[in-house]
Write a structure and sequence with these properties.
Radius of gyration: 24 Å
Strand order of the largest sheet: 1-2
CATH architecture of one domain: Orthogonal Bundle
Structural class: mainly alpha
Largest sheet: 2 strands, antiparallel
Bound molecules: heme C
Oligomer: single chain
């Protein structure tokens, strides 16, 4: 494996020299992926290229709000309550973020819309644009303003030095974060570097308001749920004020890197690459790394069997872990939905901040831990014990919030609290005032007038 690779690296450095000779003839406006580089990649690395292309076959995804409608109440007041799907193949990254109701429609000239930071984990055009505009110059732009600049989905140059097989971390926020966590990219072995290239995107982040909404990874105190919560609490940070309970809410985003980094697998040197991009071979027996980044269990023989010989036992462990985590998550959701409405009833009856603050902080901290577990896709496989601990604490905190609210409601002589019907996505969205029909119509008009006419074809992949 090592010798195959070093030969390829040599071949590549020759190739990159050739490319720099051709570079003069490229159009000045070429995006991150110019046609010459793309052809060269395809010819030089047909196996990696073909398997990378095959992520376009991973069309399946799950409507998470339909599966777990309680989440709509917990995310009320944010765009997450409008639409939220599980992830699918990398080839859909640009089209899905373009089409989701979360990113909405274009705003009027001169108005501040959603930040261009939403493009950060979708395309190699982002490091290019950051190079041209600066970190804050990029994030200060509106998402829709940069739509025409985004010409490629997750590509070779998102993980490799341009024209080379050497791994790279082109996103400044990821370079910063790995340094904060004392694992600077340049000092890591190839195994950890592989995990870090995934960790550019599969990681928790927030948009830093005082820095033009640039992507920031909140790891100053460390990167578990307690450390990140401390970071946010000491900054009095919140993403939005919950419209029902008035809780200042924290939102977690896919901390797959963090959860994996504390797992038994990480200690054994088993990384994202081992499980999601296993070594494989073509019909001539040449070994290469599969670039069809996809579900790990599809690769059981290459990725797991060597260490977990008993497939049935492994599936049983996974099933049990998944079931336990799901059951605990549903319990937290049930408790938090009630807590949000009990807080609303308390406010309506005249509660004040000094009285209700303790309960609202418990809602904030419980929902944070629930989200830190739920936003981490594949937690039951990546780190089931951390998942169980997070949700057990979330349950305790939500129960504490409700006990505190029950005392307040008693004091204010509130006899009854009305809870919403959250049996379906439709009923839960209705309860928080979301009209899916209106949002969908506005989105359709935007797609027809703007995206279909002016944006690159990658923004329509899977929607035509
Ligand atoms: C999402 C990140 C990612 C993307 C996108 C990506 N690669 Fe890779 N690539 C890796 C990782 C990780 C390795 C494995 C490094 C290791 O552990 O040896 C790798 C290995 C390679 C190697 C070394 C030989 C081998 O198969 O292990 C080549 C060549 C290569 N990639 C080419 C490409 C090309 C060409 C593209 C674009 C079509 C591409 N890569 C896209 C992450 C990526
Ligand atoms: C540039 C950002 C970026 C990088 C780098 C990246 N991903 Fe992703 N990944 C995404 C996005 C965005 C999606 C969701 C795409 C969608 O649903 O439209 C995704 C989806 C996935 C999925 C779901 C696939 C499916 O079919 O269900 C897996 C698994 C995954 N990534 C693993 C990895 C691994 C492993 C690496 C490192 C080798 C990696 N990703 C690197 C952005 C990235
Ligand atoms: C021990 C193997 C293993 C390791 C290591 C691992 N994963 Fe996974 N991952 C899985 C399994 C198993 C699942 C559950 C679904 C599946 O992929 O079969 C999963 C699920 C996911 C999903 C959700 C896929 C979906 O469509 O819902 C993403 C994204 C993901 N992993 C990314 C990563 C990243 C990024 C890393 C490294 C930081 C990583 N994984 C490390 C095995 C692993
Ligand atoms: C290099 C060896 C190795 C590989 C490859 C490997 N694992 Fe593991 N796995 C371990 C070790 C060691 C443990 C910890 C001891 C144990 O529970 O068996 C473990 C534990 C687990 C656990 C229990 C986790 C927990 O914390 O309770 C699951 C689930 C699991 N592995 C799934 C997978 C899957 C799925 C794959 C393939 C996609 C995989 N592993 C690949 C070595 C490996």
């Amino acid at each position: 494996m090592i010798s195959i690779q070093s030969n390829k690296v040599k071949a590549l450095s020759v190739l990159s020299l050739c490319l720099s000779v051709f570079a003069v003839s490229l159009p000045a406006s070429a995006g991150a992926v110019d046609a010459k580089l793309d052809n060269a990649m395809q010819e030089q690395f047909p196996n990696q290229y073909k398997s990378w292309l095959a992520t376009s076959e991973q069309t399946e995804r799950q409507d998470m709000l339909a599966s777990y409608p309680a989440a709509i109440i917990l995310w009320a007041g944010s765009s997450f309550a409008k639409e939220y799907h599980s992830p699918r193949g990398h080839h859909f990254a640009v089209a899905d973020v373009t089409h989701t109701l979360r990113t909405g429609v274009a705003v009027a000239e001169g108005e501040k819309g959603l930040s261009a930071s939403c493009w950060t984990c979708k395309s190699p055009d982002v490091p290019r644009l950051i190079g041209e505009l600066g970190v804050e110059g990029f994030s200060a732009k509106n998402f829709t303003d940069l739509g025409t600049e985004i010409q490629s989905v997750v590509y070779c140059t998102d993980c490799h030095v341009k024209g080379s097989a050497k791994l790279a971390l082109p996103r400044p926020h990821a370079q910063d974060a790995m340094t904060k966590a004392h694992i600077p990219f340049d000092k890591q072995d190839i195994n950890m570097q592989g995990a870090q290239v995934c960790g550019q995107c599969h990681v928790s982040y927030y948009f830093q308001p005082e820095r033009s909404n640039k992507v920031n990874i909140p790891w100053i105190f460390g990167n578990n749920a307690d450390d990140i919560e401390k970071y946010y609490d000491t900054r009095r940070f919140y993403e939005w004020i919950h419209p029902i309970s008035k809780t200042p809410i924290l939102k977690a985003r896919h901390p797959e890197f963090e959860h994996w980094s504390r797992s038994e697998h990480a200690k054994q040197g088993v990384t994202c690459i081992t499980c999601h991009m296993p070594a494989t071979s073509d019909d001539k027996g040449n070994q290469f790394t599969s670039h069809k980044v996809s579900k790990a269990l599809e690769h059981y023989p290459q990725a797991c069997q060597g260490c977990h010989g008993d497939k049935a036992a492994l599936m049983q462990t996974l099933e049990t872990g998944k079931h336990e985590i799901e059951a605990k998550a549903r319990e937290v959701e049930g408790l938090l939905v009630k807590a949000h409405y009990e807080a609303q009833a308390a406010w309506d009856a005249g509660a004040t901040w000094p009285i209700i603050n303790d309960a609202l902080m418990a809602i904030r901290h419980s929902q944070w831990r629930w989200d830190f577990a739920m936003a981490s896709h594949g937690l039951y496989a990546h780190n089931p014990s951390e998942g169980r601990e997070l949700l057990d604490t979330a349950i305790e905190q939500a129960k504490y919030a409700r006990t505190s609210l029950a005392e307040i409601l008693k004091m204010l002589e509130v006899k009854e609290v009305n809870y919403p019907d959250i049996s379906t996505k439709e009923s839960a969205q209705k309860a928080v005032g979301i009209s899916l029909d209106t949002l969908t119509e506005q989105k359709k008009a935007f797609l027809k007038e703007e995206v279909d006419k002016h944006w690159s074809e990658v923004s329509r992949h899977g929607y035509e």
